Amino acid sequence: MKRTDSQPVTFNAVPLAELAPAKINLALHVTGRRADGYHLLESLVVFAEFGDRIAVSSAARDSFLVEGRFARDVPLTNDNLVLRARDMLRAAYPAHPTSPVSIALEKNLPVASGIGGGSSDAAATLRALVRLWRIPVDVVTLARLALPLGADLPMCVAARPLVARGIGEQLEPVERLPALPIVLVNPGVPVETPSVFRALASRDNPPLAPLSDTTAVRDWLTATRNDLEPPAISIEPLVGDALAALRGAGASFVRMSGSGATCFGIFDDSATAARAAEAIAGERPRWFSTATRTLA
Questions:
Q1: Could you give all domains of the chain from N- to C-terminal order, each with its CATH number?
Q2: If pLDDT is split at 50, 70 and 90, which confidence band does 9 have?
Q3: Peptide bond preceding 261: is omega within 30 degrees of 0, i.e. cis?
Q4: Conformation bin of residue 2: beta by default, left when phi > 0, alpha when psi is -120 to 50
Q5: Chain CA centroid to CA 243, Å
Q6: Do 67 and 5 form a contact (C-beta atoms < 8 A)?
Q7: Which of 255, 258, 261, 262 is CA-nearest to residue 234?
Q8: Which of 12, 117, 121, 243 has its CA 20 to 30 Å from the CA of residue 19?
Q9: Alpha-carbon distance 207 to 149, whole Å?
Q10: How far apart are CA 33 and CA 233, in angstroms?
Q11: DSSP output for 218-285
Q12: What is 211-224 written as a DSSP string?
């Protein structure tokens, strides 16, 4: 295993490469809690054109290389989700040839930041290894196999607009959702998910209203919530500063994603979003900020 921040892999030259897109919770309602402690959610989830990159290739022995801006924050131990995904897939198909594999991760997303970085990396690894090892498995089965790795894994395996319910394993695809120009901002502070859930004022909140007209998703969003946003701000006020920065840059809608601390702003067009991201980066050079679009 190896980590480097200076010499990135030429991912375009690797035939088996997968985007691990940022996962964005446009809306996230906490609707209850199971007896085992898992919270019940309803969330409209989309994925961005921007994210991490996974590349896999056959090798003489297993290896794991991490590069990119946030490489130093990625653990290289066997409890890393990328390596757990590799091992899980091998265990699920013991009779299928699964040769040693070199896995390279280009880490462009902040770690533990509410946009599914680790889960999306693991999901991309599964998709890439299924291709490399030629395992005959469909997306639904792959998502089911991935659930023990984490509640976000099934939606990240799908990597398309959807509504997630339950603990995240019940997925309903959303058709014809338009691509949205957005800016992602992270103020560079960790917010622990368990702490955010413990700070919730209410765990039995109203579910999402039906999204009957996807062309009016921005209007629909104004009547939704991220129930984790207020407790996250109470724990880390910089989340509120990130939301304020997005509003000040001209976003028509802002919200925190997941349990934070990454926030997003929706803009009228990609050019406006790019200027906003540049302005925020100029004012807050230590923050992570990038303009992108959601995958339609």
A1: 2-173 (3.30.230.10), 181-293 (3.30.70.890)
A2: low
A3: yes
A4: beta
A5: 18
A6: yes
A7: 261
A8: 243
A9: 26
A10: 22
A11: HHHHTT--BTTHHHHHHH-THHHHHHHHHHHTT-SEEEE-TTSS-EEEE-SSHHHHHHHHHHHHHH-T
A12: ---GGGHHHHHTT-
3-state secondary structure of 210: coil
Beta strand spans in the chain (E): 2-3, 17-33, 39-58, 63-67, 101-106, 162-166, 170-173, 181-186, 253-256, 263-266, 288-293
Give dist(CA 250, CA 6) in Å, integer. Answer: 34
Specify the DSSP class assigned to residue 148: G
Average pLDDT, the chain: 94
Average pLDDT over residues 58-67: 96
Q: What are phi and psi of 105, to 5 degrees?
A: -115, 125
Strand-pairing partners, residue 20, are 52
- Number of residues that this document lists for the chain: 296
Q: How far apart are CA 114 and CA 194, in angstroms?
A: 12
Q: In terms of C-beta distances under 8 Å and separation of at least 24 residues, what long-range contacts does 93-100 make, across chains too?
A: 93/133, 93/135, 93/137, 96/133, 96/135, 97/133, 98/129, 98/133, 99/58, 99/59, 99/133, 100/58, 100/59, 100/60, 100/61, 100/62
pLDDT, tens digit, 9 for 90 and up, residues 118-146: 999 999 999 999 999 999 999 999 999 99
Residue 13 clears pLDDT 60, i.e. is over it = no
Cβ(30)–Cβ(198) under 8 Å? no
pLDDT digits (tens, 9 = 90+) for 180-233: 999 999 999 989 999 999 999 999 999 999 999 999 999 999 999 999 999 999
- Just list the catalytic residues: 23, 152
**Any residues with CB less than 8 A from the CB of 49 and at least 6 apart, and which?**
21, 292, 293, 294, 295
Q: What is the pLDDT of residue 7?
A: 46
